[in-house]
Each structure stands twice: as C-alpha cells, then as structure tokens.
Design a protein that fits this description.
The protein is built from eight helices and 13 strands. It is α/β, with parallel strands linked by helices. The chain has one domain: 3-Layer(aba) Sandwich (Rossmann fold), CATH 3.40.50. Strands 6-5-4-9-10-12-11 form a seven-stranded mixed beta sheet, with helices on one face. Strands 1-13 form a two-stranded parallel sheet. Strands 2-3 form a two-stranded antiparallel sheet. Strand 4, helix 2 and strand 5 form a beta-alpha-beta unit. The longest helix has 16 residues. It is globular.
C-alpha cells in the first residue's frame, strides 16, 4: 500500500473521464473543463501522444506539444534499435508496431492546429546546462502575447515541473484544467503542498504511477495530480473515495497492479 500525505487527498471531485493510453500515457481529467478548452498545451511527448490524440477526438481544439528530445536523430536511433530487435527475434510484434510509430507521428502532427515544437521547458531567465536559450521556452514566453485563453495543461517533464510551478500560478486564471506528473515527490512534498495552497484550481484526482520507487515510509516518488477550475468541481457523492478508482484508473505498468493508497 502507498502512503500519501493527507493534503494530497482530493476534497472534491468532478465529472472525470480517462483520456489517452490504457496504461502509461493515459490520464484522468475533468470532462467539463475539457469541453470548455480552446487549446491543449502539452509539455512532454517522447514516443506516446495518445493522450493528445484522444483529447483532439474529444474536443477539436488546437494542440501544441513541446519536447526537445523528439528529433530526427531520435527517430533514426529508434528505427535502428527496432530493426536490431526484430532480427534477434525479440518481442517481434511489439517492435513491428513501434516500427510504424514514426509514420503515425507524421500523420498526427500534420493535422490542422496540431503542432510539435522542439523546445525544452525551463525558465528562460535561468541557465540550463547543455541547452541553448533559443532552444527552450517556458509558460511565460508561450503566453506572453495573450494569444491563448481557456487552456488545458498536461505536464510530464521528468522533474522540471518544479521549475515552472510559479509560472503556472501566475497564469492560473487562463487554465481550465491541468494534469501534472510530479517526480521525486517523496522528497518534495513541501514544494507540492505550497503549490496546491497557492493554486486556485481544485485538486480533483490523484493517481500513483506504479513505476515509482518506494521509500522506507512507503511513499512513492511519482504521482499524477489532476486539477480544474472550481466551477467544474463538486462534492463527491462518496465521502471517502478509495484510490485507485475502479474502471477509471489504470496502472502505468500493465504488468503490475496498482496498490491501494492510504492517506496520513
């Protein structure tokens, strides 16, 4: 059983739906907030855009994805590895499926109003080792021209989320909903608690990524938090919801079950 601090227990809920992959890459989000979204801004892509693809099907809005690592070099290396694995007869079906991922990428990001920008997400006024300043952006820069309102945020940037929390607070009036994957959270619960206390959006859902490391206190180090504007949240009909929620949550690692969550 996972042990999670009580401040992370949602006090309200919303009309929740699951968008994206059945396992890793899928998230639970507020349906009504998604309906009112004009643009999905997604930080973190890698080789899985099922969330963005399903979001587009659900609400035909503009989608902008930011990930500096998904380049031509990325796809060439991936192609070579897939071919090598197929020759070695390793996970043939899985590697053949991955072989076509690049073409699926081209098809999706060739759609109208769907963009992939090869930018690293980090504060522009900070030095980021190995990243040229022209190759990175942040929420302040993205929203500086006031082009976007009614935003839904998806953030999975492997620890860099902490560096832009202040910017999320600054622009919170434009955000309808958000799902944020927090990393190393067992060491940074205080940072997350401060963020939530300053964030006007309600925490409506929590899911533990079962790829997590677990410390001696049974605290996981990767959690997914979902937020929405207060007008979309409501008091839960069930006074004490158990997490994960059956028929809504799904384990990131499909080969392992999701342990129950205990709040302390």
């Amino acid at each position: 059983m996972y042990r999670i601090p009580k401040f992370l227990k949602p006090k309200v809920t919303s009309d929740l739906i699951r968008i994206g992959s059945s396992n890793d890459g899928g998230y639970v989000i507020p349906k009504n907030a998604a309906v009112d979204t004009d643009i999905l801004i997604s930080f973190g892509l890698f080789d899985d855009w099922k969330f963005e693809e399903d979001f587009k099907k659900f609400k035909n809005c503009k989608i902008i994805c930011y990930d500096h690592s998904v380049t031509t070099k990325f796809w060439i290396i991936r192609f070579i590895k897939n071919c090598y694995s197929i020759l070695l007869m390793n996970n043939i079906a899985d590697n053949i499926k991955k072989f076509f991922t690049y073409f699926e990428y081209l098809i999706f990001f060739n759609k109208k109003d769907v963009l992939h920008l090869k930018k690293f997400i980090a504060p522009k006024n900070e030095f980021t080792f190995g990243i040229n300043n022209k190759n990175k952006t942040d929420l302040n820069e993205i929203l500086s021209k006031n082009l976007y309102e009614n935003i839904f945020l998806k953030i999975d940037i492997e620890g860099s989320e902490y560096r832009i929390l202040d910017q999320i607070i600054l622009h919170q009036n434009k955000i309808k909903g958000a799902v944020i994957e927090f990393h190393s959270c067992d060491l940074l619960f205080d940072r997350i608690e401060k963020f939530i206390s300053n964030f006007d959006l309600d925490l409506i859902h929590i899911h533990v990524n079962n790829y997590s490391n677990i410390n001696q206190s049974s605290n996981p180090d990767v959690i997914e938090l979902t937020f929405c504007q207060k007008k979309y949240s409501k008091k839960s009909k069930v006074e004490n919801l158990n997490y994960p929620i059956k028929d809504l949550d799904s384990p990131n690692n499909k080969n392992e079950e999701d342990p129950q969550v205990s709040f302390y």
